[in-house]
Amino acid sequence: MFKKILIANRGEIALRVIRTAREMGVKTVVVHSTADEKSLPVLIADEAVCVGPPASNASYLNIPNILSAAMMTGAEAIHPGYGFMAENPDFAEMCREHGIVFIGPTPESMRALGSKAGGREIAAQSNVPVVPGTGVLDDVDAALLAAKQIGYPVLLKASAGGGGRGQKVVRTQEELRGAFGQAQEEARLYFGDPAIIMEKFLEEFRHVEVQVMGDGQGHVIHIGERDCSIQRRNQKLIEEAPSTLPESLRQEILDAGVRLARHVNYAGAGTLEFIVDRDGNYYFMEMNTRIQVEHCVSEEISGLDFVRLQLQVAAGEGLHLRQEDVRLRGHAIECRINAEDPDKDFRPAAGKIEDIHFAGGPGVRVDSHAYSGYVIPPHYDSLIGKLIVWHENREQAILRMRRALEETVIHGPKTTVPLYVKIMDNPFYKRGAVMTNFLRTRLEV
């Protein structure tokens, strides 16, 4: 096992990695921007290195500074968390060139799966269904021809994208002419790559994802699936595990996820995202080659520590779990507590947290880097923390989450907590009738 690792991230995921590393006797170094010098991970890590000013491209995306920090502190490996450099194959390759282990899949796997176009091709090779669509489109004329063949409405997506950014729904030929160039420019700005693909836009669907873990030698297991259908602007708000899909469909999707990951000899933690329509048809959407924000609900129903498994695989200790060793029990729900105002179209609400008190009690978990007096910087995402509950069944988990939300007190910025209380009381949510358009069609926000 490693003696020391560097964490190239911030916020709750940096703290999450520190906690597991400490339990394993592994020293931690956390990098940070000047805006995060008083953040909890910086305060509790064994070492902290400032790598730049607040802007992400000058700090958390500053590869030379991060590699220098790793070499200066003697870190043997780098955990990228999620976001920032977590799915950057060039960064993973540079780590390898400098003798530093990248805690994640190989650069080759990341390149193959990292683009949506590449993921679609691998899915086809693995006999996993994909939404009708295209590879990378060269120009607007190619896009117009593809849309005519697929049929409107269509969805333009940044091939290198994620998190809902760089996506545009197009319903007519006229819209497409104007939207294609805009989508390319957004893709270039967000991801440094203007490549655009097109898919048939499904008006209503569930977002279901499969959690996998692999050893890089062809051994891949799944650790259940999650339903992440409650979203705003294509970004997740509430996640739960397991889904409420029929058992036969659930198993089919789990098998498809494992099959695709095994096709590329996947190493470490990864997530395969699927669309499930009203008729029970499912389609592969993309693979996230990293740990997910919502990994916690899968940990709660499996009793496994995913960060520990990541470290063990990266350190060459292998993945000793067999599929039959994975025992899933009960139901878990996660609410992402964001510093946002749901009443004003989820406008970010950065600023000082005057006072904060999270819920506790049986079956309640909180992953958060926030504390009373902490100032939420405006430079990054708005996540304050994650409230996770577990119970023996979904009905009881919903009641427990509602109780935990009522106990959660955050004075200062507006948050999404009141919205989640409304959702827990919503009859459609209670019976599992949830699609990605839930907020618009089932709840007045």
Brief overview:
This protein has 445 residues and is of the alpha+beta class. It has 15 helices and 22 strands.
Explain what this protein looks like in three dimensions:
There is one protein chain. The protein is α+β, with helices and mostly antiparallel strands. It folds into three domains: 4-103, 3-Layer(aba) Sandwich (Rossmann fold), CATH 3.40.50; 132-200, 2-Layer Sandwich (Dna Ligase, domain 1), CATH 3.30.1490; 206-441, D-amino Acid Aminotransferase, Chain A, domain 1, CATH 3.30.470.20. 34% of the residues lie in helices and 27% in strands. It has 15 helices and 22 strands. It has helices spanning 11-23, 40-44, 63-73, 89-97, 107-114, 116-125, 140-150, 173-191, 247-263, 295-302, 306-314, 394-407, 417-425, 427-430, 438-441; strands at 4-7, 27-33, 47-52, 77-79, 101-102, 154-158, 167-170, 196-200, 206-215, 220-232, 235-241, 267-276, 282-288, 331-338, 340-341, 347-348, 351-352, 355-357, 364-368, 375-376, 383-391, 409-411. It has an eight-stranded antiparallel β-sheet with strand order 13-12-9-10-11-14-21-19, sandwiched between helices. Strand 15 (340-341) and strand 16 form a beta hairpin. The radius of gyration is 21 Å and the shape is globular. The termini are far apart. The model has no long low-confidence stretch (mean pLDDT 95).
